[in-house]
Design a protein that fits this description.
Length: about 300
């Protein structure tokens, strides 16, 4: 069982940090323009008419407008073949005006996500999904970081949350979030890291040891107050739509952490929504700016 709850906690405001990052990027874009340098250009490839994917891309397009990036949107029917999609990706790879691009997931079942991701030039892979970018996490010169873990690390940094020598427990081992995040905490944060997943026995025995608990599994309310060490930092990366008749749109977004029971035990905690979510887009923008500066300083 968890010990006595702490009396207060600091809410980690991802919306505010994201806004600050966008302002910093906007300033750097203005400086590049003043120096006659190239303005970053981000391209989006959207396959099919999935409503959630369209919303995600619309938000990314808005973010590009906010910071002064150039952008291109390419839409294809969900009947497009893997071969034809790969040809479009090759065209974007060869377009010198495009600095970074994103193939929005999910893709139709007949298209291999792994094969398509590996078609993207690593120096334009602002999602950080290619094997080269993923592997570069453990190098001394990482390239473009996976966007969501990058956002988490940036939140910790900006809230001056020390990771060096801390016990970090990552719940979730996906290629998109948990696995790269654990590597970044070791390589960049110099933390001691435990990774838990669906095969882990007695999850609470691990989470209660965490100075910093990071959860990314997509299971609402998985972490409860009795599973958290007093004074822990809790980062909730999960986002799941759940039915909610009280909401105008009929659903709410829930995290993996039961905020009401966990928050009283924490020193810092992210809300859902408004915590890690906004940082993913901010990280994509940072990666795009970095991709531009690496190619054309």
């Amino acid at each position: 069982m968890a010990e006595t709850a702490t009396t207060s906690y600091t809410l980690i405001d991802g919306r505010k940090v994201s806004k600050d990052i966008k302002a910093e990027i906007s300033q750097r874009v203005l400086e590049r323009k003043a120096q006659g340098k190239k303005v970053p250009h981000l391209a989006f490839i959207l396959v099919g008419d999935d409503g959630a994917s369209q919303t995600y891309v619309d938000n990314k397009v808005k973010a590009c407008k906010d910071v002064g990036f150039h952008y291109t949107m390419m839409r294809f029917a969900d009947t497009i073949s893997e071969e034809k999609l790969a040809k479009h990706i090759a065209h974007v790879n060869d377009d010198d005006d495009v600095d970074g691009f994103i193939v929005q997931l999910p893709l139709p079942p007949h298209i291999s996500v792994e094969k398509i991701n590996e078609q993207i030039r690593p120096d334009k892979d602002v999602d950080g999904f290619t094997n080269r970018n993923f592997g570069s996490i453990i190098s001394k010169q990482p390239l473009l970081m996976p966007a969501t873990p990058f956002g988490v690390i940036e939140l910790l940094r900006r809230y001056q949350i020390e990771t060096e020598g801390k016990e970090c427990v990552v719940v979730g081992a996906s290629r998109i979030a948990g696995a790269p995040l654990s590597m970044m905490l070791i390589e960049q944060g110099h933390a001691t890291v435990t990774v838990c997943h669906k095969y882990t026995k007695d999850l609470g025995a691990h989470t209660r040891k965490a100075d910093i608990l990071l959860v990314a599994v997509g299971k609402p309310g998985l972490i409860t107050g009795d599973m958290v060490k007093p004074g822990a930092v809790v980062i909730d990366i999960g986002t799941t739509k759940v039915d909610d008749p009280s909401k105008p749109n009929g659903f709410s977004i829930k995290g993996d952490v039961d905020f009401a029971t966990v928050a009283p035990h924490c020193s810092f905690i992210t809300p859902v929504p408004g915590g890690v979510g906004p940082m993913t887009i901010a990280s994509l923008l940072l990666n795009t700016l970095r991709a531009t500066e690496l190619r054309l300083p």
